[in-house]
Amino acid sequence: MKRKLNSQPHLSSETTARLTELIGVRVARLPNSVVGIVGCSGTGSPAVHVLVRAGVRRFVLVDPELFAPSNLERMHGSTWDDLKTYPPKVEILRRLILEINPKAEVTLIRGNVLDENVLDQLLLCDLVLGCTDSQHSRAALGDFASHYLLPCLDVAVLMRAKKGDLTEQVGEIARYTPDEPCPWCLGRINQKALAYELMTDAEREQRAQAAAEAVKRGIDGEQYWGDKPPRELTVGYMTTTIGAMQAGYAATWILGAATMPHQRFQFDFGMPLLGVVPAEKPRKPECSCNWTKGWADQARAERSVSKPSHWP
User: Fold this and answer.
1) How far is CA 37 from each of CA 89, 154, 247, rounded to the nearest angstrom?
2) Both 82 and 65 in a single domain?
3) 197-228 tens-digit pLDDT
4) How many helices (H) and strands (E) does the chain have?
5) Which residues fall within 8 angstroms of residue 51, CB to CB, at 6 or more apart?
6) Same domain, yes or no: 91 and 217
7) Residues with Cβ within 8 Å of residue 201, at least 6 apart in sequence
8) Which domain holds residue 214?
């Protein structure tokens, strides 16, 4: 006997039946949760893709960038037609979410994590996923976790090759909570790269010129200028894997069904046993995350990063 199909598609418990069978009625928490995504490309898009299919219905998407041709290889939800119009990345992810669940509620912010309106929206979330390769974003999420009690899962991908042969295929996942070391304590912030991101174009030119003049005098120019940090080259199979893992840890954290094995760990796909290495560190006694827990706006002076005045 054939099963009768409704003419209008609908969402029901059947769409997450396997997850419910595995975890139980706690799966009902996912549609009522709000997940923030900071960075909507390589790792952010697969994370969203997994979460919306698992039943998460409410999202806050944050990304300042437009779609670019190189994004097609690793951004879930993007299509060939996007190469004609170059829409904002947040718009592409909203389209993906609504195609899977038309009843989803999606808040879009085409902006930077340091914008005040971004913080206002992220504070409505139960959990935030850090999916960018910028240092200031990572530092800001650490501040939000400590000052506003806003839990975060942050990821990174590092790939290296020599003469066309892959030498490193590293993924990293870190958790920030008010009771755990911040990204500064964990050594996840590259201060030179952070300074480059925040300085003006004029300051970059000035430092480069000072370094060049120092070299002419026989002095190491590194103390004046470390040059532009190298661009991180990542590809779709790595970003998809890391983003999907991040989504899995996020969903099970919301459901109270599992926890990450370490606060921070790294793994290399090319090494035996995946080369899994815990990278946890204790809090630094001098770090402000020791005494600003829950201070909210009163901790503004203790934020490790803020929006530069020259940014639009």
Assistant:
1) 12, 10, 10
2) yes
3) 999 989 888 888 887 887 788 777 666 666 67
4) 9, 8
5) 30, 35, 59, 247, 250, 251
6) no
7) none
8) 191-228
